[in-house]
Amino acid sequence: MNGALDTFAAEVGGPAGGPVTCVGGRTQWDAGGPIAAGAREVRAPEGIVAYVPSEMTVQVRAGTPVSVLDEALAEHGQTVALPDWPGATVGGVLAVGRSGIRRLGYGPVRDTVLEVRAVTAAGAVVKAGGPTVKNVSGYDLCRLLVGSLGTLGFIGEVTLRTRPVAPTSRWVSGELDPFEALARLHRPTAVLWDGQTTWICLEGHPDDVQAQADLLDAAGVNGPPARPPHRWSLTPGELRHLPGRAAETGRFLAEVGVGLVHAERPPPARPVDPVVAALQRRVKAAFDPEGRMNPGRAPA
Amino acid sequence: MHDALIAELRAALAPDRVRDGALERTLYERDASHIRGDAAVICFPLDTAEVQACVRIALAHGRPFVARGAGTGLAGGAVPLGDPVVIVTTKMDRVLSVDPGALVAWVEPGVVNLDLDKQLAPLGLQFAPDPSSQQACTIGGNVANNSGGPHCLASGVTSAHVVALEVVLPDGAVTTLGGLDAEPDGYDLRGAFVGSEGTLGIATRIAVRLTPLAPEVATLLIGFPSVRDAAAAVSAIIAAGLVPAALEMMDQRITRAVEDFVHAGFPTDAAAVLLAEVDGLPAAVAAGTALVEEVGRAHGATSVQVARDRVERAGWWKGRKSAFGAIARIKPNYYLHDTVVPRGRLVDVLDAIDRIVEREDLIVMHVFHAGDGNLHPLLLFDAREPGVMDRVHAAGDEIVRVSVEAGGVLSGEHGIGLEKRDLMPLLFGPDDLDAQARLRDAFDPEHVANPQKVLPAGSRCGDLQAVPAGAWI
Ligand SMILES: Cc1cc2nc3c(=O)[nH]c(=O)nc-3n(C[C@H](O)[C@H](O)[C@H](O)COP(=O)(O)OP(=O)(O)OC[C@H]3O[C@@H](n4cnc5c(N)ncnc54)[C@H](O)[C@@H]3O)c2cc1C
Do the Cβ atoms of B163 and B106 come closer than 8 Å? Predict the structure, then answer.
């Protein structure tokens, strides 16, 4: 039915195919721990299958680099809310499930996914969700797959919601209280803070962007500084106390309003509720009874 | 056996909050759909511990359980099947905490959608999903059905506005799915739970994401000479790169009925009316308003009005949301459908629906979320007319079929429940249904939580049954 996907499914194979791992752009390859030795490598197919700008949806194969997708969308003044880490693929970004620094304005990556075609541990192509911008037909397996690090199935093709590119996009920066700035602005696209300096991304109509910028004692800059490597997941309220935790975090850049902190040091391990842990294991066992999909990885 | 069940439930809750009288059992045998079941006993817990007790007692007696909010569901999701313990959340109706800084509130599942917004408005905040039933439906029901509303076009449906859920799982354990932090660990079980229609457990506390009210709002009412022109304008607005906050369509039958009923100020001479709302910062709102007006005129608009003030805007929205009440004056019964098609196919599918309805000799009215292609054909009939229900069902099935054939889906917001369960194979193949059944089984291997809903018989191991004979009313 669907050539590229069926070929991908055949490559993944059934249980006889043994342990298998799906490789994207290797930009976040260590997320979730190392892959068990001996797992066979496969790659999802590439290419845009269908793009109808007036529907604001795009159907794309998972091996497509996000940058390639973004270029095609930009021709029609659109984009997707996926982080464009250099070299990252659509499937890789979704399997890892981490959002980019514009999450405050664009929402988390999981909310961009409308439909997924994934290859299961049995080697079958399974469709989840639907192609329309709104859909509640059956269980939301799309959200289950986003962030599952390929441990429940390999994403082969997706339909994503696109969004119009804002007419103006501008970064400003200053020594501001980021929490006060967030409260004063109307839905900024990003508010980043390193404990001293704040970087704010404002997007929209040029007059609005100017008026919002005028509310701040901030100057135009090219963009935020480089992000430290580790991700801490905090609640938005906990960020206020970050400066007092500098010994734990090292240099940090916090996504204010979101709760994510990019820090020099790795986050401490977090306790998992045993009830949730058991449920996670049951979900994994239901989708991959032999444990052959991305063995070694755990979506922690 | 039954007496022991009742006695244990009464001991765990309170005698007056466990009911099995004939009147209550009749009240709770159905929701707002046209399907009827049978409730063994109805419980009204006050907190998580009492919900857990209900579930554990049901399990001990080998009974399934069914969660229920306000019973406004239209797909039979809360219809009790299998002689279950019905667990009603309406007495769990407290807003537990609101954190305007972090933009999150914890609420109990029985909080009524509109009541939450009334509490949030003074803080300049809202819970974005606004189903037309918001005066009655509960947040728990919204979560279970992943409900939408007119203002979900730009901001997304319920799943985008729920960050964490405390749930009683089908085995009686209590836990929290998701979290208030940015990237909770593990699989997104929160995401899987939202929209699961009560089949993965009962939500007992819900952390909702709050949205700041927009500083500027413009509401437009645009009359068109035909439904076709209005639908084409919808596609053109989106194609021009604008995603309005809301973009609703009403046909002339609806606007006339509404005018007779609430005098909303709709232009009743237009064959179709678009109700569009643009919100945000002032310059964007001005540009968006101009764009909507321009596209409307380019598609033959016969009238364009921009709401002068809050009062006029509120009047228009009241008219939109009271459409279902208004039509009671035309025929005693209605059947409200819910499918989604790509926006570009709206015109074709509306034409096809007209033909289907004509063939089945029924009346159809259209009032729907045009901006995201979410159709709500409303079939009017008089149930006393012999044989009419067969025609209503035939038309309904056909409407779902043409929607799916046009590249659409079975439901945009009402869910599958019992109503569309056996239509699932129209959209999903055996492997697709098997994957969904695996998720269900991971949460609920014995199918004790709202049994026989969502997935058709044989999705995995053939343990489900057909809609019981005589259930349709
Ligand atoms: C006139 C009218 C207009 C409507 N307009 C809209 C609309 O614009 N958009 C829209 O999306 N829907 C609409 N609906 C449908 C309905 O109102 C929504 O689906 C609503 O969210 C249901 O809420 P409820 O509290 O009535 O739930 P119920 O009908 O009581 O239950 C619905 C489902 O949720 C489950 N459930 C309830 N509470 C819980 C819980 N705490 N935990 C787990 N499961 C639970 C039930 O088992 C059932 O499967 C409309 C209905 C009517 C009658």
Answer: no
- Interior angle at CA A108, CA A105 and CA A111, nearest 5: 110
- For residue A288, being part of any structural domain is answered with no
CB atoms within 10 A of CB A234: 21
How do residues A227-248 score in pLDDT, each as one tens digit? Answer: 999 999 999 999 999 999 999 9
Which residues in B118-151 are b (16+ Cβ under 10 Å) and which e? ebbeeeebbbbbbbbbbeebbbbbbbbbbbbbbb
- pLDDT 10s digits, A189-218: 999 999 999 999 999 999 999 999 999 999
Q: CA A168, CA A185: separation in Å to the nearest integer?
A: 16
Domain that holds residue A191: 168-263
Fold match flag (B2-88 vs B216-324): no
Distance CA B386, CA B56 (A): 45
Angle at A149 between CA A148 and CA A151, to 5 degrees: 75
Residue B329 has pLDDT above 90, yes or no: no
Please indicate whether, in this complex, the C-beta atoms of B411 and A135 are within 8 angstroms of each other: yes
Fold classified for B2-88: 3.30.43
Q: What is the pLDDT of residue B460?
A: 76
Query: What is the pLDDT, as a whole number, of residue B402?
Result: 98
pLDDT for the residue numbered A30? 84
Distance (Å, whole) CA B55 – CA B170: 7
Give the separation between CA B405 and CA B388, rounded to whole angstroms.
26
- CB count in 10 Å sphere of residue A214: 9
Domain boundaries, chain B: 2-88, 95-212, 216-324, 331-405
φ, ψ dihedrals at B56, nearest 5°: -65, -40
CATH code at position A115: 3.30.465.10
Q: Of all helices (H) and strands (E), which one includes residue B199?
A: none
Inter-axis angle of helices B2-12 and B48-60, to 10 degrees? 160
Residue A65: phi and psi, rounded to 5, are -65, 140
Same-domain status, A117 and A189: no
- Secondary structure letter of residue B36 according to DSSP: B
Of A116, A141, A164, the residue at which a domain comes to its end is A164
Q: How far is A53 from chain B (nearest CA, A)?
A: 7
CA of A198 vs chain B CAs: smallest distance (Å): 17
Taking residues B18-38, report their average pLDDT: 95
* CATH class of the domain whose range is B95-212: alpha beta
The kind and range of the H/E element at B165 are strand B162-168
pLDDT on residue A33: 87
Per CATH, the architecture of B331-405 is what?
2-Layer Sandwich (3.30)
The reply to whether A298 falls in a domain is no
User: b or e along A91-105 (b: 16 or more beta carbons within 10 Å of the residue's beta carbon)?
Assistant: bbbbbbbbbbbbbbb
The continuous run of DSSP H or E covering A285 comes out as: helix A274-287
**Smallest Cα–Cα separation from B338: which of B440, B276, B419, B267?**
B419
C-alpha distance from residue B390 to each of A146, B175, B195, B365 (Å) = 42, 44, 29, 19
Give the residue-averaged pLDDT of B380-391: 93
Q: What is the mean pLDDT of residues A45-69?
A: 96
DSSP code for B452: T
Spell out which residues of chain A touch residue B425, defining contact as CB-CB under 8 Å.
Answer: none
Take residue A299 and report the two structure tokens written for it: 């979506």
- Would A300 be classed as within a structural domain? no
Q: Which residue has the tokens 């919100």?
A: B279
Residues with CB under 6 A from ligand 1: B 31-32, 66-74, 77-78, 89, 109, 131-133, 137-138, 140-142, 144-145, 147-149, 197-198, 202-203, 324, 413-414, 450
B176: nearest CA partner in chain A: A276
| A236: contact with B, CB 8 A cutoff | yes
CATH architecture of B216-324: 2-Layer Sandwich (3.30)
Q: How many CB atoms are located within 10 Å of the residue B262 CB?
A: 17
